[in-house]
TrEMBL record:
Part of the ATP-binding cassette (ABC) transport system ZnuABC involved in zinc import. Binds zinc with high affinity and specificity and delivers it to the membrane permease for translocation into the cytoplasm. Belongs to the bacterial solute-binding protein 9 family. The keyword Lyase does not apply. Residues 1-19 form the signal peptide. The keyword tRNA processing does not apply. This is High-affinity zinc uptake system protein ZnuA. It comes from the Bacteria. Keywords: Disulfide bond, Ion transport, Metal-binding, Periplasm, Signal, Transport, Zinc, Zinc transport. It is found in: Periplasm. It comes from Oceanisphaera pacifica. InterPro entries: Bact_metal-bind_prot9, Lipoprotein_PsaA-like, ZnuA, ZnuA-like.
């Protein structure tokens, strides 16, 4: 009988210790998931910083991690192409592109139409053409809120014993998201009419949400630096456009940036849509929003 009483607490402990494991494809999704899973196991990350989701090649260890996770959060094959065939057969995946439908006005607003003739694209291949479908959902605060809601709903299905924790975490995230959105809008308001170029066509949601004056982009895939002809075209466009800034990303080599900027008045800024340097935590997505806003504001206002 004594052995039974020793065994029973251990059994109850093992049952109560079970918790859902979440694996996210990219860092921004991990930031959102970190808020919703707070109090349980921290979400894991599949693609470490520095790896582009556009052309990442899965390793056998990645496949094992995907199959082992209780839930895999990813955008969809339109972004993480290498995950498509694998996750299409996995019941443990949450595919955001099938759940979030962009509003029609996001692709037809006057601000974007006004700038269409100034957009420069390096590659037109169908595999990486974002002209018809923007996959960078996490850059729209409204979509970030939806991602958090979808994740919370799925976690509640998988782990109903912790429904209160997921609901509380979602409520806290939603409240802080609204406050941060207002703060970022106030930061960016003074630069809303200042023109700029970006190398990577990744910021459409962000730019439409905050009504920014992008003049164009040069590549749809940050892993592919512009070629010599494109650099020449960019250089000419910069001299003609009155752009104040060109925003590169950590993946671009300084030599390419310098070649584009030579003999122009535009300044160089750096934006990181994959939040490479943000440490995951319950408030990390909001830190990411502020980081993007500060980088844009400082460059456009010529702040050191």
């Amino acid at each position: 009988m004594k052995a039974f009483f020793v065994f029973l607490p251990l059994l109850l402990l093992s049952q109560s210790a079970y918790a859902v494991t979440v694996l996210t494809s990219i860092k921004p999704l991990q930031l959102i998931a970190s808020a919703i899973t707070q109090g349980g196991p921290a979400p894991d990350l599949l693609l470490s910083p520095g790896n582009s989701p556009h052309d990442y090649a899965l390793r056998p260890s990645d496949v094992r991690r995907i199959k082992k996770a209780d839930l895999v959060l990813w955008v969809g094959p339109e972004l993480e192409a290498s995950l498509g065939s694998l996750l299409a057969e996995q019941p443990n995946s949450l595919t955001l592109m099938t759940k979030i439908t962009p509003d029609e006005h996001e692709h037809n607003d006057e601000h974007e139409a006004h700038n269409t003739d100034k957009i420069i694209i390096e590659h037109q291949d169908h595999a990486h053409d974002h002209s018809t479908q923007d996959t960078h959902l996490w850059l729209d605060p409204h979509h970030a809120g939806t991602i958090a809601q979808l994740l919370a709903d799925r976690l509640i299905e998988l782990d109903p014993d912790n429904i209160a924790r997921y609901q509380d975490n979602l409520a806290a995230f939603s409240s802080q998201l609204s406050e941060t959105d207002q703060q970022v809008a106030a930061k960016l308001a003074p630069v809303a009419d200042i023109g700029y170029f970006v190398f990577h066509d990744a910021y459409g949601y962000w730019e439409r949400h905050y009504q920014l004056a992008k003049l164009g982009h040069f590549t749809v895939n940050p892993a592919r630096a512009p070629g010599a002809k494109t650099v020449s075209s960019i250089h000419h466009a910069l001299r003609q456009s009155q752009a104040q800034c060109v925003f590169a990303e950590p993946q671009f080599k300084p030599a390419v940036v310098e070649a584009v900027m030579r003999n122009t008045q535009a300044r160089i800024g750096v934006l990181d849509p994959l939040a490479s340097n943000i440490e995951p935590g319950p408030n990390s997505y909001f830190a990411f929003m502020h980081e993007l806003a500060d980088a844009m504001k400082d460059c456009l206002l010529n702040k050191p």
